[in-house]
């Protein structure tokens, strides 16, 4: 049973699924810019992003993914991460965010704790060999049926696929079949599992609904006054609610453009993105802003387009905030 108590409000909460939110964006803003991934040299309009999510969703249906199944994503920031976010939502699967920094024992715990049936993984991240770590623990993950590898190198399970093969496998699935699945979904269905840091014990898997994550993104984006004119730089990791929620879904609900400067944070790459892409809003934790302000290249850049942003995730030193406002011109 669902129960909500609400007083007088000016803005009602959105009662839509993640998939419907993206379809609405594609309907409203079609050919406008939705997503820029600079390190992959990819630029997608809202319609292109929605179409890519449909293609991946049909690929998941072809794999036999059912409503409520757990799909893991173990990857740094990339376009495929975001496409899977929307594709899994459209088929009613629960996306399990796996921290890109996990080591084998942490990966093993997360996959088993969430009961991941399919894992989408990058080849590597920095010095971490994902395929090797997965091979080390795979025999201890009984629920894991197959791995989908982003890139050109497949993992070694008999039913494993490349991302491109998964998408291609959905070509025989009709649009009607996808629409039928979406029609069974509700905004209050669970859609995402995010793990806590595990500082004092094993990480806890927090389960979120469409309603949770859509309104989290929409409310923050609304407070920042986002419109289709905004371009939001998202150097924070997508596996965290800062990236996939406030970042991705804040843009989807307002028409602002998501801009990824790299697969992980790099101060110079982020600064160049702000300048080259005409960024109006910048996200980060305090150490990211300190790194940008202290970068040797900072003094030579002319940052004129920023109008807002979010500094969060840790206590924000007053002097750092003052420098961001005064020197990065982000009031």
Question: How would you describe this structure in keywords?
Answer:
Rossmann fold, alpha/beta, 331 residues, 12 helices, 6-stranded mixed β-sheet, 2 domains, 7-stranded mixed β-sheet
Q: Could you explain how this protein is built, in words?
A:
It is a single chain. The chain is an alpha/beta fold and 331 residues long. It has helices at residues 18-29, 46-62, 79-90, 104-114, 130-137, 163-169, 175-183, 210-223, 241-252, 267-276, 286-294, 318-327, and strands at 33-37, 42-45, 70-74, 94-98, 116-121, 124-125, 128-129, 146-149, 161-162, 190-195, 205-209, 231-233, 257-260, 281-284, 308-311. A hairpin with a 4-residue loop joins β1 (33-37) and β2. The chain folds into 2 domains: 47-209, Rossmann fold, CATH 3.40.50; 212-327, Rossmann fold, CATH 3.40.50.980. It starts with 17 loop residues before the first helix and ends with a helix. It is globular, with a radius of gyration of 20 Å. The protein has 12 helices and 15 strands. The chain has a 7-stranded mixed beta sheet, with helices on both faces. A 6-stranded mixed beta sheet has the order 2-1-13-12-14-15, with helices on both faces. A two-stranded antiparallel sheet has the order 6-7. α1 (18-29) packs antiparallel against α2 and α2 crosses α3.
